[in-house]
Amino acid sequence: MSKTSTKGIWKVISASSMGTMIEWYDFYIFGSLAVVISTKFFPSDNPTAAFLSTLATFAAGFVVRPFGALFFGRLGDIIGRKYTFMATLLLMGGSTFLIGCIPSYETIGFLAPILVLILRLLQGLALGGEYGGAATYVAEHAPAGEKGYWTSWIQTTATVGLFISLMVILATKSVLSAEAFDLWGWRIPFWVSIAMVGVSYLIRKNMDESPVFAKAKKEGTTSTNPLKESFGNRYNLKFVLLALFGATMGQGVVWYTGQFYAMSFMKTVMNIDSSQVDELLGIALLIGTPFFIVFGWLSDKVGRKYIMMLGMLLAIFSYRPIYKMMYDTTDISKKTEILETPRITTENKTNGSSITITEKKYTDGTSVVEKKTYLDKKDTQTNLSIVINSSDKWTLTFLVFIQVLFVTMVYGPIAAFLVEMFPTKIRYTSMSLPYHVGNGIFGGLLPAISTYFVSHAKTAGKADFYLDGLWYPIIIAGICFVIGMIYIENKNKITHL
């Protein structure tokens, strides 16, 4: 492959990254608003069940990603990279916009969660086809010996998409009252996506096809049945399975622990104010994102394997100490309450229920709002919202940043790693499936599974119940680390390009 000009490769990177970033934004805006969505599209009589249902719906989008990888991967290997991920962009944008238009559960009943689930599945299918196309497209434009560096720019888009989703939510909250945001303002981040998708579509429309694929098509060497050649060929299937169980499975759980589970944990287990969580997570992501490029570049020098495996190993041994430190940082049982009479207000509802709000303050600047909803004499719901002080906020930001650093180690080099494993004619299909099974199923199910483990341990009365959710990513990453260390070669050159 001839040396690609810096100007040309930056054009490819910009166009590909913008579209992929927008698709991640669309996909993750649902997770970023999970706490709010659980009150809009699901029955409100059991908040825990509603939140778990929301996480399950969130996870459903991940579960179908492998099917999107198969469907769109096949199209990408037959008709081309460019037109396939243009189609995924439009499907994702339309689905996201429509989620913001669905009436609430109170208005249309069970039809609301059904419609959300359908659109969430369409989002998952779209993302299943997007990532493999973008990573392949960039790798096939990049100069030899620099695949890790250039594809790592695509790796930043998932985190940047999450970061922008948090910033859009914070901006919306800042211009609306809390009541307006809860009533209808939460829909704005979904609606914003349609304008972003339109801009990205116009940019991608003017892109050229991948030169490697165009050459293969001109020479008649493209695949007529990519699915059969990818998974029906025992030799190629071996590499598909190795990519899954030796790399993407562990990468997936590390990715979602460090970003989404950290966010969910702080909001639902530690009960920190939602806006504060979004803010500190956004800071951690902003500081950590450049390390995707650093580790992608480094993988061109020393190989992909050891960087990814080290990231998994550090995560395995660090997660429990990190999350214990996070929990202890804001544990109000270890703080000193200011001995004043707490401010208590009571509001009676027309349906016979009542809400009692108690505000407490602590000597370190922490404040707690406890809201008790009395539905009847036997049923009481209690919600805590902890507003943390500046010192605790920076401590948590640092602890989340450490987790993001693990993410950059396992995720930064993996696009180049996957592209290296498969020949041009079946690359889109072959690399997309293990990536989306590892991320979509093993990673995507993590928030729901881990939250369930924590809830179960809390009900059982375990003192350190909040750490039980970490066994899932630790075990999955541990299995992946062993397989990867034994069977994966430490390569940093692409033999098929």
UniProtKB/TrEMBL annotation:
Q: Where in the cell is it found?
A: Cell membrane
Mostly located where?
A: membrane
- Superkingdom field: Bacteria
Q: What are the UniProt keywords, alphabetically?
A: Cell membrane, Membrane, Transmembrane, Transmembrane helix, Transport
Q: Which CDD domains match?
A: MFS_ShiA_like
- Keyword Lyase listed? The answer is no
* Signal peptide, first to last residue: none
The cross-references to Gene3D superfamilies, in alphabetical order and at most eight, read: MFS general substrate transporter like domains (1.20.1250.20)
Q: Which InterPro entries match?
A: MFS_dom, MFS_sugar_transport-like, MFS_trans_sf, Sugar_transporter_CS
Q: How does it sit in the membrane?
A: Multi-pass membrane protein
Q: Name one Pfam family in it.
A: Sugar_tr
Question: What name appears for this protein in its UniProt entry?
Answer: Predicted arabinose efflux permease, MFS family
Q: Name the residues that span the membrane.
A: 21-42, 48-72, 84-105, 111-129, 150-172, 184-203, 239-260, 280-299, 306-323, 394-419, 431-450, 470-488
Task: Specify the Major facilitator superfamily (MFS) profile domain's residue ranges.
Answer: 12-496
